[in-house]
Write a structure and sequence with these properties.
The chain is mainly α and 92 residues long. Helix content is 63%, strand content 0%. The longest helix is centred in the middle third of the chain and has 39 residues, at 15-53.
Length: 92
């Protein structure tokens, strides 16, 4: 059975259908990654933090929200450039 996501199969489809297929596949992959990472965070949290600090276990939804909160607080800003100046304050 052929998979519709192969590039040669997509070439014969109209542009809007190709876009819909690629968006659907992309969202499905994103959902799978979020699920797996959420379960990993939940397992790691419940295995370590609950033992160390005697806190209650968290659910999968709380683990995903914790991931979102960490991304908002500690996320990377790739547009920041660090410039170093010399002793006179001039930039190199």
């Amino acid at each position: 059975m052929k998979c519709i996501t192969e590039l040669k199969d997509l070439a014969g489809l109209p542009r809007l259908v190709r876009l819909a297929v690629l968006v659907t596949v992309g969202l499905t992959v994103l959902a799978a990654v979020v699920c797996l990472v959420g379960f990993a965070v939940q397992w790691l949290w419940n295995a370590t933090i609950t033992t160390i600090f005697h806190t209650p276990a968290i659910t999968w939804g709380q683990a995903v929200l914790l991931l979102i909160l960490c991304k908002l607080l500690f996320g990377n800003d790739y547009n920041v450039r660090v410039t170093h100046g010399n002793r006179d304050g001039e930039k190199n």
